[in-house]
């Protein structure tokens, strides 16, 4: 298993955001974590990436305990709200994230990730002038800098138009073919349907259903919460 958790809980002050969740993600999967706003999806990713400590429970990511430095070096993360300064170019942003990932600057690596997301020609343009889809793709390029074995994507296409969504989905599917395991948060059923092999449905901090996409499509897993169909 690439991710395994046991009764993971996160409470903020008195509010329980994630309540006793058990996840098992296999190598090579695109694992969809589906739920409405406020369900606990981002909090789960933050625990799995080591950005916040669980209140209780335990877990392993890439065979290491949550928050382990060696495992973190092989994780990529695209947050829900990817931040940038309008004046920064794509290259500036990549260099900034290279430092955040504690990597040495490498122009060849920058070119590779830009090529990967279809922005090789636009790397020296200002990100403020990019379309929404391009902004999301440069965010994805930043998440690819460490050459991750495991990639966390938090709502990667929610703000995009259909063409932007398709571009990002195609990249996600290509990354899976190259061996990357992907954990994808979404409130869009259509998004997880389009790319995921397995889904877990979270509502109010609790996993209410989990199963393969095949079983979901065959009606063996019933959606019992309101998620946006598009
Ligand atoms: P969304 O897509 O709207 O962000 P989500 O499923 O990712 O939804 P979370 O962001 O994980 O949900 O939030 C789960 C719950 O925890 C929400 O009620 C949210 O208000 C609360 N929460 C999240 N972060 C904090 C925080 N730092 N302090 C207090 N409460 C928080």
UniProtKB/TrEMBL annotation:
Keyword Magnesium annotated: no
Annotated GO MF terms: ATP binding; ATP hydrolysis activity
Entry keyword set: ATP-binding, Nucleotide-binding, Transport
Domain of life assignment: Bacteria
Keyword Endoplasmic reticulum tagged: no
Domain ABC transporter stretches: 3-229
Family listed: Belongs to the ABC transporter superfamily.
Annotated protein name in UniProt: ABC-2 type transport system ATP-binding protein
Species this chain originates from: Papillibacter cinnamivorans DSM 12816
